Amino acid sequence: MATKVNRATAAAETPATRLSPELLLGLYRMMVKCRMCDEKARILFRQGKYAGNFYSNVGQEAGEVGAAYSLREEDWVAPSHRDWTSCIVKGAPLTACFAQLFGKVDSPDRGKSTPAHMGYPSLHIITPASTIAAQLMIGTGVAWGMKRKGQDNVVVSYCGDGATSIGWFHEALNFAGVHRLPMLYVVQNNLWAESVPLRLQTALTDLSDRAKGHGITGVSVDGNDILAVYEAATRAITRARAGEGPTVLECKTYRWYGHSEIDPAKYRMKEEVEAWKKKDPIPRFEKYLADHKLLDDQIKKEVRDEITREIDEAVEFAEKSPYPAPEEAFDHIWA
Amino acid sequence: MARTLTYIDAINEALHQEMERDDRVCILGEDLGLGGGVFKATAGLYQKFGEERVLDSPLAEGIIIGAAIGASLVGFRPVPEIQFADFIGDAVDPILQQAAKLRYRSSGGFTCPITIRVCWGGGTGGGLYHSQENTTWFAHEPGIRVLAPSTAYDAKGMLIAAIRDENPVLFFEHKKLYRTAKGDVPEEPYTVSLDNAEVRRPGRDMTIVTYGYMASIAMEAAEEMSKRGVEAEVVDLRTLNPIDKKTIVDSVRKTNRCLIVHEDTKTLGMGAEIAAILNEEAFDDLDAPIYRVTGPDIPPVPFSPPLEKFFMVDKEKVIAGMEKLAAY
User: Based on the domain organization, do B181 and B220 belong to the same domain?
Assistant: First the structure.
């Protein structure tokens, strides 16, 4: 009898019953915010509003948001160059995010770092280099330190499929495995490492299998399904906080645009791009929320209007923010 | 109370004392815990402080440095070890692109107080991959201190200063000095400046600029030449980045001649930079060209004893250089 009841409960349980409406709408709002900020960043680059380059995350928002949405203030994020929006998820103000792109003094790095290579020290977001997979090692070191201090905090570190080929990815996973560190490695497998297709990157089908070689947990999810990512990440983070060790979470997804804004990505088939755009994580989640009567056109409009206002204010702020004085080039070399 | 200690015992004592003083100090690297280090630089630390603070790492130099950088961001003072300078290749990105630039790229938001101990240098029969000097790979980079002490006293005082410094530091320990360099070393902890070269020997006729094991060779050569009436001032750089330009320039302004002595290969070695500094800042004070006595431009260091002897700068080679400079 008891078994029957449990079965009935399990059958009825869905993300919509497990997760509160506030959380579901929060995830939705954050995905839309990341999308709109990223698209705005691309437009601003094309308008010549800032130099350098931009590394769009559009199409990958479910992984970006789902992995870090439940983090606490004292948890750390170690992003790559494609994770500018992870700063938004962790709580960085948009004014700082756009000032970062513009290389202005109101950027957390005061114009030292390349656009989109963004950290935010007070929110424990590690300013990334461009060298691939280095952030995974530093993040792993943070996790080692926090574990030694007895904190129950975690580190979420992002990388792409290409990063899983380089030695430092493996050195990081191996060390995290030995010491059962509170790490979540989020592999945004978007099928292309700049212009190199996955088939030339690895013989693996699931990049989470990389974890097996290091004796740690590996999980692959549909990276365009925000709820799948969120629930897998939350399980991994809960395990990590409890001292049960690191996880590799592969989010199977797609990068809509080129590696950067100067890459037209002509190496990809148009049909492939169009097919993936049809799997856009945002309309997919909108349908889910609407089916559960949590979202309608009115709310959608309100969400977008509010974010538009916030972005407009942030961009205006960033444009007015001064450039650093040339002499600042000498600052912060030595402690 | 000072007693005579070897260079390696001075390093070992510095590590013991800093770990006792500050529980944020921890060490990690290959073979340094249970094994106490291949040269015993870390002997006794594992037994005293345990695996939490004295960690035998996987055989992977990248994560040795990467983990140290990360731990430093949450308050630790890690002292990672690269067992031989020849094996530092895997850690070059973590050292140069991460540790040296993290403070800069975050405009002071993050600082990285780690002290990387590296065993370097030839003259011990180590062959091509246990003898190299690669100090200049790193001395070229703003944001990371590069130290190369030559005496037991400096080894202890500079290591303690490095661990207490907020900057990332590369601390190059010459393996030939480990047991040949001995000197008075105070028992109590002390620090030595990380910003100053040291005049090891005053002299009026020429300046020898050198560092590391070569400082001891230069001192021997200077003593011998003193008997022949040539008084050389020996400047031990001690810190290769940043360089103490003032001590070098002041010395050459006095002696008007300069010989640069280093173990490293000649092309683009420290000597090139020292000569350029003197060209810019003391050109009118020079009575002779600046000469260099260095390792030859061959892969360092070929194994067979005659080949190694050919590579290594010794007292006779320095004396030959001094004679040439004195005769100009």
Answer: no
Asked if A267 is an active-site residue, the reply is yes
A22: which residues sit within 8 A by CB, 6+ positions away? none
A109 and B CB contact within 8 Å: yes
Chain B neighbors of A167, CB-CB under 8 A = 60, 62, 90
> How far is the C-alpha of B213 from the C-alpha of B148, rounded, in Å?
9
Which residues, other chains included, contact A153 with Cβ-Cβ below 8 Å and sequence gap of 6+?
Answer: A72, A74, A75, A76, A146, A182, A241
Residue B57 has phi, psi (to 5 degrees) of -90, 165
Query: Do B14 and B156 touch, CB atoms closer than 8 A?
Result: yes
Q: Alpha-carbon dihedral of residues B37, B39, B45, B47, nearest 10 degrees?
A: 70
Please say whether the dihedral angle defined by the alpha carbons of residues B202, B208, B211 and B212, taken in this order, is positive or negative.
negative
User: Which pTM was predicted?
Assistant: 0.96
Contacts of B74 in chain A (CB under 8 A): 142, 145-146, 149
Across the interface, whether the CB atoms of B58 and A332 are under 8 A apart is answered no
Q: ω before B261 within 30° of 0 (cis)?
A: no
Instruction: Delimit the domains of chain A by residue range.
Output: 18-323
CATH number, domain with residue B273 = 3.40.50.920
By the 10 Å C-beta count (0-12 exposed, 13-18 middle, 19+ buried), B254 is classed as middle
Does the ipTM surpass 0.95?
Answer: yes
Please give the C-alpha separations between residue B308 and each of A85, B158, B211, in angstroms, as whole numbers: 55, 30, 20
- Phi, then psi, of B3 in degrees rounded to 5: -135, 170
Q: Is residue B191 part of a domain?
A: no
Q: With CA atoms as reference, report the closest residue to B213 among B239, B170, B172, B177.
A: B177
| Partners of B4 in the β-ladder | B184
Residue range(s) defining the domain that contains residue B286: 198-327
- Contact (CB, 8 A) for B121 and B212: yes
Fold assignment, A18-323 = Rossmann fold (3.40.50)
> Active-site positions of B?
130
Helices A21-46 and A226-241: crossing angle, nearest 10°? 110
A142 interaction partners in chain B (CB closer than 8 Å): 70-71, 73-74
Mean pLDDT by 10 residues, chain A (335 residues): 48 82 98 98 98 98 98 98 98 98 98 98 98 97 98 98 98 98 98 97 98 98 98 98 98 98 96 98 98 97 98 98 98 97
